[in-house]
Design a protein that fits this description.
single chain, mainly beta, Methylamine Dehydrogenase, Chain H, Immunoglobulin-like, 2 domains, five-stranded antiparallel β-sheet
Length: 443
């Protein structure tokens, strides 16, 4: 079994919000289909722990309280399961053994769930942007990596974390981490300096890490050792793909045929059949261990950040972003031809629906449509927050007995004063569940 995680975007993002306010309950040639968009945020990672039906995705919106952890239980047809919207951008998700116990890494925080995503708790805080999390084969021993050569390890399920010693020749940023077989031998890949220091390796469970650089002058974004610690692949900027067959001692450059930045790589069953994804909607596939890579899809505007084939090389998922909306693509027969369909604009969390504001941006008024799957509701409210967490307006007289309705916001606070231009967070709450959107006011 493989245990690896990588963050698929080569650009670090930093969120201005420094305080965690709360956690809210919340296709061989074939067809790829665009599934409904889970939310108005870039999706950065995806994980289907044990099958192709139940999975999780995380993302970043650039706005506080609008960075989602979302769940599907029907193969991505909808993302209505328990979710969270956090103040900080989220980069990586890992459910090591089942769909109940999982971890999410983001800017300054690592979150943990033990109930399949119904609730999340902070287990690590204060180490900057944490780009990838990996628990190799169990829920107790794990690693997170991030900016300025950060590597931390836990041996008790996140209760305590110890910072690992890494060479300080160059302070780069780790973007991905992979422990192929167990918690002893692992790799961390990231930014490059003078053709060195873009790959570190440990052979003793992280006690020491040493330079195992590939020799490429490109930043590395994703890493995958399919079935053992000997044969592995890394992908990076400018179409870089490299392969090792001797546990990272030597790396051989492979011809990807593209110049797009590649963000992730997955060899789901063995070291022969694999996929790589990246910017410009690029999806690559190999059937011969990377000797040749065929372009399955490119020339579109999507930024594809992660690829996951949960159980075989047939059914898989690719996630990313198109503009400010998340993108989820699925294949049921190995990739190839792609079908792009418009997904619904409504974000739903357990029956609470909040549509995209219109117009957005706005100058005078914007309309927020909302809906409830079940009624009547005991209580429902829609609040508008500034990006510093201050509530400026609350609407409490919502028509919770109706299947759908709308309110209009005129850019004023509860006292009737106009609020400054900028981004605002719209939060719909009903019976303890929430859905979040962002809107921009122009003056």
């Amino acid at each position: 079994m493989r245990y690896r995680v990588s963050i698929r975007s080569a650009t670090l993002a930093f969120c201005a919000t420094a305080t965690l306010f709360s956690l809210w309950p919340w296709s061989a040639l074939a067809d790829w289909t665009a599934l409904p968009k889970p939310c108005a945020a870039s999706l950065n990672d995806v994980c289907f722990p044990t099958n192709s039906t139940t999975g999780y995705t995380v993302g970043s919106s650039g706005s506080p309280f609008a960075n989602p952890i979302l769940k599907t239980t029907n193969g991505g047809a909808s993302w209505d399961g328990p979710g969270v919207c956090t103040p900080e951008n989220l980069w990586s998700v890992c459910f090591p053994t089942n769909a109940q116990v999982g971890y999410v890494a983001g800017n300054d925080y690592v979150y943990k769930t033990t109930d399949g995503g119904s609730s999340w708790n902070v287990v690590l805080q204060g180490y900057g942007s944490l780009m990838a999390v990996c628990f190799p084969g169990n829920t107790q021993v794990g690693y997170v990596v991030g900016q300025v050569n950060t590597i931390l390890k836990t041996t008790n399920g996140g209760a305590d974390w110890v910072q690992q010693d890494t060479p300080s020749v160059y302070w780069g940023n780790f973007m991905s981490v992979d422990f192929p077989v167990d918690a002893q031998t692992g790799y961390a890949a990231g930014t490059c300096y003078d053709s060195h220091y873009n790959l570190y390796m440990t052979q003793n469970g992280g006690t020491t890490w040493f330079d195992a650089s590939t020799g490429t002058p490109d930043d590395l974004n994703g890493i995958c050792f399919p079935s053992d610690a000997q044969t592995g692949y890394v992908v990076g900027d400018y179409g870089a793909i490299l392969k090792t067959t001797n546990a990272g001692v030597n790396w051989t450059s492979q011809a990807s045929g593209v110049v797009a930045d590649l963000h992730d790589v997955d060899f789901p069953v063995n070291s022969q059949v694999g996929y790589a994804v990246g910017s410009g909607g690029v999806v690559l596939k190999t059937l011969d261990g990377g000797t040749t890579w065929a372009v399955q899809r490119d020339g579109t505007s999507e930024l594809l950040n992660a690829v996951c084939f949960p159980v075989d090389a047939v059914t898989g998922y690719v996630i990313g972003a198109l503009g400010d909306s998340g993108v989820v693509l699925k294949t049921s027969d190995g990739g190839g031809n792609w079908v792009t369909e418009a997904g619904p604009s409504v974000l739903r969390t357990d029956g609470v629906g909040l549509h995209l504001p219109y117009p957005d941006p706005f100058r005078q008024t914007t309309t927020l449509r909302y809906s409830f799957a079940a009624r009547p509701r005991i209580s429902a409210s829609l609040s508008i927050y500034s990006t510093d967490g201050r509530r400026v307006r609350v609407f409490t007289q919502l028509h919770s007995e109706m299947p759908s309705s709308r309110i209009t916001w005129n850019g004023k606070d509860d006292s009737g004063r106009g609020v400054p231009a900028g981004a605002y967070v719209c939060r719909l709450v009903a019976d303890g569940f929430a859905a979040v959107r962002t809107v921009t006011l122009c003056r």
